[in-house]
Amino acid sequence: xxxxxxxxxxxxxxxxxxxxxxxxxxxxxxxxxxxxxxxxxxxxxxxxxxxxxxxxxxxxxxxxxxxxxxxxxxxxxxxxxxxxxxxxxxxxxxxxxxxxxxxxxxxxxxxxxxxxxxxxxxxxxxxxxxxxxxxxxxxxxxxxxxxxxxxxxxxxxxxxxxxxxxxxxxxxxxxxxxxxxxxxxxxxxxxxxxxxxxxxxxxxxxxxxxxxxxxxxxxxxxxxxxxxxxxxxxxxxxxxxxxxxxxxxxxxxxxxxxxxxxxxxxxxxxxxxxxxxxxxxxxxxxxxxxxxxxxxxxxxxxxxxxxxxxxxxxxxxxxx
Amino acid sequence: xxxxxxxxxxxxxxxxxxxxxxxxxxxxxxxxxxxxxxxxxxxxxxxxxxxxxxxxxxxxxxxxxxxxxxxxxxxxxxxxxxxxxxxxxxxxxxxxxxxxxxxxxxxxxxxxxxxxxxxxxxxxxxxxxxxxxxxxxxxxxxxxxxxxxxxxxxxxxxxxxxxxxxxxxxxxxxxxxxxxxxxxxxxxxxxxxxxxxxxxxxxxxxxxxxxxxxxxxxxxxxxxxxxxxxxxxxxxxxxxxxxxxxxxxxxxxxxxxxxxxxxxxxxxxxxxxxxxxxxxxxxxxxxxxxxxxxxxxxxxxxxxxxxxxxxxxxxxxxxxxxxxxxxxxxxxxxxxxxxxxxxxxxxxxxxxxxxxxxxxxxxxxxxxxxxxxxxxxxxxxxxxxxxxxxxxxxxxxxxxxxxxxxxxxxxxxxxxxxxxxxxxxxxxxxxxxxxxxxxxxxxxxxxxxxxxxxxxxxxxxxxxxxxxxxxxxxxxxxxxxxxxxxxxxxxxxxxxxxxxxxxxxxxxxxxxxxxxxxxxxxxxxxxxxxxxxxxxxxxxxxxxxxxxxxxx
Lengths: 320, 552
Fold this sequence. Notes:
The structure holds two protein chains of two kinds. Chain A has twelve helices and no strands. By secondary structure, chain A is mainly alpha-helical. In chain B, the strands form six sheets. In chain B, strands 8-9-10-1-11 form a five-stranded mixed beta sheet. In chain B, strands 12, 13, 14, 17 and 18 form a five-stranded antiparallel beta sheet that branches. A four-stranded antiparallel beta sheet of chain B has the order 4-5-7-6, covered by helices on one side. Chains A and B meet through loops of A and helix 7, helix 9, helix 11 and strand 16 of B.
């Protein structure tokens, strides 16, 4: 068991490493996380300090140049510094929201599929109900009711409230098919308690799915958080946040395009990077699904065979 | 009225004495031509066109075009003159009885002639609690005899409003009120026909009938409101045949449309957003078309004198020295002037360069502020408690203004947390006693009389209001109220203005319920084919002076 896992870990890394785009994405995210973590000790200007004395009398934002590398906003605040500090907020909310969504989604999906019948019925109908809610409208209402627009944990919670449903459905599907696999039946017939079977036999097989959807989920959470801040119910001023920066800068689209372009680019690159990573991970963990990019670029399809052998070996190992 | 960046924003001032700030009119474009359609981009739909109910500049923009009252401001001045009244009223020597003679032959757009009965009906309907209008029970009409009995249901009519004959209306007051004529000129004093209200039932708000230069032709909620010229208007006919309000157009989109010739005016009752202002003032086509005029408004930090730590006068005085008012104006793109008092330019009696605390050019005195805070007992051992600054969140500008204040207070070691709220929520929490300690407030004139900057926001009466009050500091000084009551009835205008200046001294150099900050400039712009567009000192939009090139 142990040696098998280490072995598959190496295999995964070996496959992942070949995906150049995924590596670029990983490098970008690692750099961003490091910048975000070390923002307080980096030689950056205070992101919330307005250099009003540098502004012209009509309060025109300062263009990118030697004073402010990426320019300033209408309050004379350093855009570069605000972008880095904004990464803290975006990444934090992205990770936390997604973490909550994963935990809830995996629990609901597994329990529903494993116990089936009325448990499945109730949980999945509830999931359907949650999915049917218009996300933005409901978030606005919820945040208004909670009266806690500025609290990052509340925002993360609200995002998680909607994104666990997707995870729950996928996990349920996976568990349903796993349930019928021989080694699970074997475990059940040899008297394994449900908890034992769930934790020891089913959950480990969900790990690839969780990892892949977790990475996509971070991207979704970050873009949702940007949207919430964009419409004014996310992070509150003066905290810098990418979505809010785009929202505040949109009026200056023609006059001071840097106010929209740079934070917009950060959202785009971060979401793209997480998507590339998840794409790479999916290929590495489950070569059956070739990514679109690789199918187009690489154009070979030896995946099916590799998967077949992998499933067989894992199943053998489990039943052994 | 309570200042709301979006809803209430455009009442601007016409007396241009202390400002030299550019044009009040755009190009005159030669001889006016009749005809054509004016396209106006509006963000939100109109709430109502019932003059008894509407209290926002969007609605007033349209109401001004379809209704008339007894009096109106002459041209683009703050001088009152007769409208449906034949002349200014005769006022009895005790200042309590007003007699109006009406013009003959003024007709509603349904063809019926306006008589004194219509005014009595309109005023009583407007003040009737069942109409649920904002004037009911308020200070403006409270001095009219018999209103109290009417509100409580003891009387079916208001005894102080009397129809002497079809063309004579008499209004009796319980006590003299020097601003009552201004009150009559507000849209709440517009005349409407009884039969139109009966025909529309509860939906009169969408089926208005008036006497004005335009009539409502079509109103598709959320999309389009069309005004057509009223052929039987009793005054000078409008140049425009039609005015189309295109509803649901965001300001940024509106300004793009204007640059492409698809809109003539964009949200004319609201000050131009910063971004558009900076951009268009650099645009060769539009920079000469930007019109500016002082708003009669005052922006201030309200400190609740009943709540800690602002119950300590030393703290309030210290706060008066911390805000960098020049930075606030910079965030507003220079569209404002520092104001250390409570009256706005160019209100009658306004004192230019008023500076009772001897503050520097930015409106600060940080050294003094620090020593006052020390005197008040705050220091390293006893830090000043962090304060929430509650402000109405209307656009990115409001966040930026509040953030600048936050930074100012860092300089004296005080932490300010920003708490932006929607306008209704803001009114709710700042209008309730003992709820909000520190708020970012604005007040804009209802009418150009200094009493409007005191009665509703700085008196004990206003402090006793328990919901949606205007006195956000809950400040009450009996001495101030005595002077204010004296001023209200004072018929000598010079003496009266001195009394209001005395009140300003009490507030700004003795009691400090506010940190007065600045008064703003109103800016607007029109498309190149628009001529005669002018900002009015009181009205949010005047359509009758506008014509379009070639009358198309």
